[in-house]
Design goal:
The chain has 347 residues and is an alpha+beta fold. The chain has eleven helices and eleven strands. The N and C termini lie far apart (47 Å).
């Protein structure tokens, strides 16, 4: 789609005068959307425009990230203006300024066991500080559970959409869809319960490698992605994070030693219990099993050409996890019962 003039236009020239950051160079577009890098003699900043936003939610997010930053966690607080505001409005849009963060992304499988434990401790520290800074969240939550029959029906629709005599890619598509359908039929009676009593609170919402930046020593320099701040079961975020961070892109599944180190680190900072972790593992596996959206996007959405012809990233993990469900239920909970001598070798 062609880029409109509004998409390329710089922010209003006098906008940056609202902050006490000295003389700034002309903003340079950075990343996706309406974002810019702003360089000054004293440092660099990240300016983001919000064309539409919930003012109350955005300011709550700023309050939380400022508190997390003040607590010594690697979170970038918004830079206040000369008047002390963190949200500036101009021309009907909102603008927020953050310090620029350097560092690089690292995949979870690149981390040593010690770094995995530190990363789990970081997530636990975020949970603990969010819990301390916010009012209690309702402890009993009705969490809808996906229905296997609905997922089977969606797969059948996708199979019907395939050409009768297709090419090799169509044959691969059919095989992947039939594999998922067979798993759904075989494991339909493994559905988790609708209602769970568990520890709930404010969550980062997207704790994965794309929102983490690392320094040269391997330490996390910034946790980004706070637009996803939400509430929900804490154990659910821990398990989701581990599954995103420590999964191979093929049928090798999860690196369970790294998972165990990560859970151990989180437990030290924000203890839950083995039952909550196991319940979250069960639900995360089930939701992935019933989520056939990645299969559709990979194989049937013709406006998504990048990556077509490759297995859906989630397909290999779902197959592996379905075959190793009992193992993962036990191993995710191990840090709550293991002795120190049972810890894997650290590097």
């Amino acid at each position: 789609m062609p880029t409109s003039q509004n998409d390329t236009a710089a922010p209003p020239p006098r906008l940056l005068k609202r902050w006490d950051i000295g003389d700034a160079e002309p903003p340079v577009p950075a990343g996706d959307g309406r974002c810019w890098r702003v360089d000054t003699a004293d440092g660099s900043y990240f300016l983001r425009e919000y064309a539409a936003y919930d003012r109350r939610a955005l300011l709550f997010r700023h309050t939380m990230t400022t508190a997390l930053d003040a607590a010594g966690l690697p979170v970038l607080a918004p830079v206040p203006t000369r008047a002390g505001r963190t949200l500036v409005t101009s021309g009907g849009c909102g603008y927020v300024l953050h310090p620029w963060v350097s560092g690089r992304r690292r995949g979870g499988l690149e981390l040593t066991f010690g770094q995995c434990e530190l990363l789990g401790g970081l997530l636990g520290g975020l949970h603990a500080e969010l819990d301390r800074r916010t009012t209690p969240v309702q402890q009993s939550m009705l969490i809808p559970t996906p229905c296997a029959a609905d997922a089977v029906a969606a797969v059948d629709q996708m199979l019907d959409a395939l050409p009768g005599e297709g090419n090799d890619f169509d044959a691969l598509t059919e095989r992947r869809l039939r594999e998922r359908r067979a798993l759904l039929a075989e494991l339909a009676d493994h559905q988790p319960p609708e209602m769970e009593v568990t520890t709930v609170g404010h969550l980062h919402g997207a704790f994965h490698e794309g929102n983490l930046r690392y320094g040269g020593s391997g330490n996390v320099t910034a946790v980004l992605g706070w637009d996803s701040l939400t509430t929900g079961p804490v154990a659910g975020e821990v398990v989701r994070a581990a599954a995103r961070l420590f999964a191979a892109e093929d049928e090798r599944g999860l690196d369970l030693d790294r998972v165990r180190a990560f859970i151990r680190g989180h437990r030290a900072a924000f203890p839950l219990d083995a039952g909550q972790i196991q319940s979250a593992v069960h639900r995360e596996w089930w939701e992935r099993l019933c989520d056939v959206g990645p299969l559709r996007h990979r194989y049937l959405d013709h406006d998504r050409p990048i990556g077509r012809g490759l297995p859906a990233p989630d397909a290999g993990l779902v197959t592996w996890w379905s075959a190793n469900l009992e193992l993962t239920l036990d191993l995710f909970a191990t840090p709550y019962t293991e002795l120190p001598s049972e810890s894997p070798a650290y590097g």
